[in-house]
Amino acid sequence: MTSYELDPVERLLAERACKRVILELVRRLDLGEPSTVSELFTPDGVWEWPYDGRRIEGREALRAYFGGRPADRLSRRMCTNILVTLDSPRTASATTYFATYRVDGYTDGTLVPPRLPANIGHYEDTFRKVEGAWLLATRTLVLPFGGPTGRVEAGAADRF
User: Fold this and answer.
1) Which of 118, 87, 71, 93 is CA-nearest to residue 21?
2) Percent helix, strand and coil across the chain, each to the nearest 5
3) Which of 46, 65, 70, 75 is the most exposed place for a label (fewest CB within 10 A)?
4) Which residues pair with 125 in a beta bridge?
């Protein structure tokens, strides 16, 4: 891994800005409006999952993809070990480990009994600085542990 030589404060600010994009993406997916995730990507940004050949390219396609998730899906992503590396004054890369807890069939106010994560893996990201803002250029999902999304059973919260 290389790291571009910058003033230490400039490096820290750039790394923090990239990390903020990663955390904001997760917040928007789990707690906000998923379709707005597209705003965190460059206009030609790409999200891909090589395992099944999925590749979504461009903000409009990203908006439609993330906005099309089921309305009754409840998810929480736990992200850790975020390592950002500056490659140049305008480009960076990052690796982020994650675990995703997710169910479909969720109704607001329902308490879902604890369960195992649906997915565990890591993201490989690249960033570009565009008009003074750091944005995702690519996000590649690496998923060594994954399974189907569970469904909340009727009355599940009553048994908790």
Assistant:
1) 93
2) 30, 45, 25
3) 70
4) 94, 139
**Between β-strands 54-57 and 41-49, what pairing exists: parallel, antiparallel or unpaired?**
antiparallel
Backbone φ, ψ for residue 100 (5° rounding): -115, 125
Q: Which amino acid is at 143?
A: L
> For residue 78, which amino acid is it?
M
pTM comes to: 0.89
Q: Is the pLDDT of residue 145 over 90?
A: yes
What is the per-residue pLDDT across 44-55, written as a single tens digit (0 to 9) for each?
Answer: 999 999 999 999
Token output for 52 = 């099944």
DSSP symbol at 36 = G
- The backbone torsions φ and ψ at residue 13, rounded to the nearest 5 degrees and listed phi first, read -65, -40
Signed CA dihedral, 15, 21, 26, 27: sign only: positive
**Which residue type does 36 have?**
T
Residue tagged 């990507």 (tokens): 41
pLDDT band with cut points at 50, 70 and 90 for residue 153: confident
In terms of phi and psi (left: phi > 0; alpha: psi -120 to 50; beta: otherwise), the region of 34 is alpha
34, 13 in Cβ contact below 8 A? no
